[in-house]
Amino acid sequence: MHQYLFFIGDFPIRAYGLVLSLSIILATGVAYFLAKQDGRWHTHIVDMGIYCGLGGILGARLWDVFFFDWGYYQHHLTEIFNVWQGGMAIQGGIVLGVIVGILYTKRHNIDTWAMADIMAPAIIFGQALGRCANLLNGDAFGAPTGSAFGIIYPATTLAYHTYGDQPLWPAEIWEGQLDIVIFALLLMFRSGKHAKGQAFALYVMLYSLARFGLEYLRGDYNELVLGLFKSAQMTSLFAFAAALAAFLYLGWEKKAAPTADPAGKRFEPEKNKKHKK
Asked: How distant, in Å, are the alpha carbons of 25, 163, 210 from that of 54?
């Protein structure tokens, strides 16, 4: 586990920043492959990767600053945008990244739900690599396990400064592994019949479930909202409920919509037609 890979003069090349950049690049590559396989909009993917990636970084940073570490940053305002130090909340990155993506699709007359389905596996793939960056940086760490099992972080990391040499739950490792599982499940789901937008809704549901459970093992913050759940768990609950509603509605909408004949003309089922004499 190395926070600094090497130095160029006095400038450090951090493992966190390098792996995070790599996650955006590779996620964009996955999205390009899926879009080209789908036969639509692959020429837009690189631009979307840049815009959504930058939006995701900004959203992740601001979410962490204002929802998790405002007690520190309100006294260190000049450090708010020091993203190379770590301190990024993936839920904020998803929110702002998706907003940027929606704006891009509207500007270029792209079907937003269809593009979201294409992007969903790529997003979760990028998240999996992003958790590798957290591990190398020693943040997003778990709570003490109370046994010999767990990760002992180097003395230079925030995890060590928080818990010393106690073994901690490998929360970020397990989340990265679950992200890969979700990635595979989304690819399988997309290979079957589904309504437009359901793949993205499924992504939100699965990640929300995984994140809600893993928060019980996290040790980098412990404040509860209304004395019930951590803030990330509350966000996961709302996101899951909204995604489930969207998944069911999109499925119902597809079944209720008129179908089309081979020539592309829409028609209603025979039972709904009135016979003419």
From this structure: 12, 32, 25
Strands, E, within 9-64: which ranges?
A: 11-14
Closest CA to 115 of 189, 43, 176, 23: 43
Residue 42: Cβ within 10 Å count: 16
Q: For residues 220 and 160, is the Cβ–Cβ distance under 8 A?
A: no
Query: Hey, what are 133's tokens?
Result: 């960056």
**pLDDT tens, position by position, 199-238:** 999 999 999 999 999 999 999 888 888 888 998 899 999 9
Torsional class of 91: left (φ above 0), alpha (ψ -120 to 50), beta (otherwise): alpha
Q: Is 161 exposed, middle or buried (0-12, 13-18, 19+ CB in 10 A)?
A: exposed
DSSP designation for 26: H
Label each residue of 150-215 as H, E or C: CECCCCCCHHHHHHCCCCECCHHHHHHHHHHHHHHHHHHHHCCCCCCCHHHHHHHHHHHHHHHHHC
Element (H, E) at 244: helix 231-256
- For residue 184, which phi and psi values (nearest 5 degrees)? -65, -40
Judge contact between 117 and 200, C-beta under 8 A. yes
φ, ψ of residue 60 to 5 degrees: the values are -65, -40
The predicted model scores a pTM of 0.86
For the segment 71-112, what is each residue's pLDDT rounded down to a tens digit? 778 787 887 887 766 678 888 999 999 999 999 999 999 999
> Average pLDDT, stretch 149-173?
93
Report d(CA 59, CA 56) in Å as an integer: 5
